[in-house]
Known about the structure:
Helix content: 25-40%
Number of strands: 17
Oligomer: single chain
CATH superfamily of the largest domain: Type I PLP-dependent aspartate aminotransferase-like (Major domain)
Distance between the termini: 73 Å
Shape: globular
Number of helices: 15
CATH class of the largest domain: Alpha Beta
Structural class: alpha/beta
Number of domains: 2
CATH architecture of the largest domain: 3-Layer(aba) Sandwich
Mean pLDDT: 85
Largest sheet: 7 strands, mixed
Radius of gyration: 23 Å
Strand order of the largest sheet: 4-10-9-8-7-5-6
Strand content: 5-15%
Amino acid sequence: MTTPDLRALLRAPEQVPSTASAPPTAATPTMPASGAPATPAMPAMPAMPASGVPAAPAEVPTTPPAEVPGLPTTAQPGVFSPESARKDVPILHRTVNGQPLVWLDNGATTQKPRQVIEAVSAYYSAANSNIHRGAHTMAREATELYEAGRTAVAQFLGAPSPDTIMFVRGTTEAVNLVAQSWGRAHLGPGDDILVPVLEHHSNIVPWQLIAEETRARVVPVPLTPDGEIDQDAYADLLSARTQMVVVSQASNVLGTVPPVREMTALAHRYGAKVLVDGAQAVAHMPVDVQALGADFYAFSGHKLFAPTGIGALYATPGAMAEMRPWQGGGNMIESVSFERTTFAAMPHMMEAGTGHISGVVGLLAAIDWLRGFDQQAVAAYEEALMSYAMQAMATVPGLEVIGSAAQRIAVMTFTLAGHDPASVADWLDKDGIAVRAGHHCAQPALAHYGLESAARASFALYNTSGEVDQLVASLRRLQQAGQGAEGA
Length: 488
């Protein structure tokens, strides 16, 4: 049996057209002649398991199309529409509890287009090998795919070079990496780490751990009543003691989009480094790390329509020069003896052991899929959808949305009078609507509003106003059911 043609297996087939895919451009990484194209895909969609998820989307009723005024509701060549994205995402066409799935838990994880699913399957079917250390054909092909993923991430973030990109498991590991590899070398007694109250726990706890070790201190930056970072307080807290400022480009619980560029410039006046948590931002807005001026920028692939367990950390060359190895092992070394070990150049020095190769392949496919849409159109659509949702949710008696920042992504955290958040999520699930309930790994942000938990609906480019209507109708039925129970 002859070895299969890797290019043929990974090429997007003509008989399965993608409404989202775009032809390679100067900004899209292409593979060398000995490798594979930048957008892997299997020739046929794998059959779905017998778990209630049909293999053919048409067999299951779909959610009503979007009706957001002024934006397209059906797919058109070269124009973004939520329906064009939905067609590529198999799981959105399944049922839950006998109802069409309404996925409004995108802040926790996004669903995956078939291009990503097929790319991962194709990699394991035709190109599975370890990377960087093999001289055989499949090792070269896998390495080329992996490094094409690094190039794609660099271009997606507006980074100056692929050499500024380190692969990690996700944002949490990226923050820990910076805290351990940069923080341990540069933090000491009396140094300050400024952390806004709106931050995710993954951007708080690693800094507490390294502060305890180095005798530095974590300084919270307060919020205003509407859920924005208090910029006056931030300016007052900056000082010669400030060594690091960490800030989310978008909050996972309030949706707040802080003025990161301005905050970074101000921190740099004091000689502080800045780490931006981009986990919630990358799927909702164009990112340019050089324009932001950030020293570090981290994101998670699974919030960007890619597999779990993969993410990336960008660092400026200057910041990289100040980082020490975090983990030791294979791949991150130049030479090893019992007398002395020399380390590989960055970014490989921070990538000990075998990386998540298939995850990088999936991330590459996800970025290529997302870049097939007009990103400005996606951002405008989500803004309009959020505006529609805010107006619609205001009609639900007893519902209160948390936070009212002027700049925010499509995240809506709310409470419903008379119902704890877990019971709200359980009720919605019976209608096939997935939202998240709890503290959202942002307890300080909720505590700012006197809350321990809340429900959250978070949107993505494939959500529709019809789904918002279903959410509102279900919540109104819950309130009516509660009133009926009280009357009884």
